[in-house]
Amino acid sequence: MKYKAIVCDLDGTLLNSEHTISKYTRDVIKDVTSSGVKFFIATGRHHMDALKFKEMLGLDSYLISSNGARIHNENNDIIFKGDIPKELSNEIFDLNINEEIHKSIYKGDFWYSEKPLDEAQEYHKESGFTYNVRKFSELKNSEVIKFFYINENEKLIRNLENEIKEKFGDRINLTLSLPICLEIMNKGISKGSAITDILLPKFGIETEEVISFGDGLNDYEMLDVVGEGLLMGNCNPRLKELLPNNKVIGRNDENGVAEYLKKVFL
């Protein structure tokens, strides 16, 4: 089949371990899109953060950010907003979270954190997008794009995942972008729903005509709904368990996305 569109995650997928896009990958994407194939970024990052990579690739396309809670058009205008409503966000703010776990939210055009997170500087060095330190008690009574919790101890994060699932059930979408980063979005919000409900109808493209790439559990819905969903060689083992029939390709540090695109399109 001739694919008409590519949807690609950033961290662990398009970005290498230096948290940037290699020149080789940029050149391959330029060659592929020059033939008329559309290329869309779908990331858990904030839209103001992800915009840097869209510009780096020279893309004139829609941008899915915050795991599908925001979609911006080619002019960077919001066309979809799926925030967690105030009443529900207040319940999440009130959760009793282990003090060792780093707490952050995306709200509007900002990233707020209750305390500094030094390693964040490395992840966001390309864009320069960073957090503002604020007490969560000052941020209540408002809509939130997403909550996320980080700790290098995967067991702590897994325990928190189970606790939140038990408390909120299907009132939220709970996922992990990394094994050490747990994320909460509003019910029904995912990269997959952003693609099927908003993106593809806009361009008259069928799901079977789309190829996508991802490495984290927050990519699950996206990889499951398209014509071909590719798993990175460095992907979360839990993602492989959920999608046992999906093809595994090269790692992000091996230009895995670019190498596969060359085989399919060039």
TrEMBL record:
Its cofactor is Mg(2+). Pfam families: Hydrolase_3. Gene3D superfamilies: 3.30.1240.10, HAD superfamily/HAD-like. The keyword Magnesium applies. InterPro entries: Cof, HAD-like_sf, HAD-SF_hydro_IIB, HAD_sf. PANTHER family: PTHR47267, PYRIDOXAL PHOSPHATE PHOSPHATASE YIGL. This is Cof-like hydrolase.
